[in-house]
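ingest -> validate -> predict -> emit
validate: passed (alphabet ok, no gaps, 168 aa)
predict: started
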Amino acid sequence: MRRLSSLAFAALLAASGAALAAPQKAGDPGTNVEMPFLIAPMSKDGKLLGYAYISPKLVASNREAALEIRNKVVFIQDAFVRDVNAAPVGLAGDPTEVDRALLAHRLVDQARRVVGAAKVVRIMFGDGDKDKGIKFSALHPTETPMRADQTAAAPQAAAAPPAAPAPR
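emit:
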């Protein structure tokens, strides 16, 4: 009986050790590293159109790599900021739309340069479902037109002197 329980215990230990040593798939809990927001200038023909607000998340190869990435977030973020300011991130046909594939490739290369190629699997923007992780904000957004009654009342209100206080 003792021998049987010893064998069962040894098999349990071997199975748990193998499970711990097995590499985790990208995106497993503990392997996603949220990065600070990134702001990329968007321009056309040298004229600034606005900024793209980017919410990146790096996916590490395993939990240990995720810890190393978290320890170097400031250096990765510095590389990201330098990259998006050095070269355009917009699509050629629409400079207000981010070329997601190009940006992902460039940012993964930067992250791998900082922490090592085997530690960064990929990058995601937002949560992928509702939040795409990239939003464009125009430098000079179009103003909301005023209603006709507001435009007519504004000059009259400015021309009229303030009313005298009521007697008590």
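Residues 4-26 have pLDDT under 50 and may be disordered.
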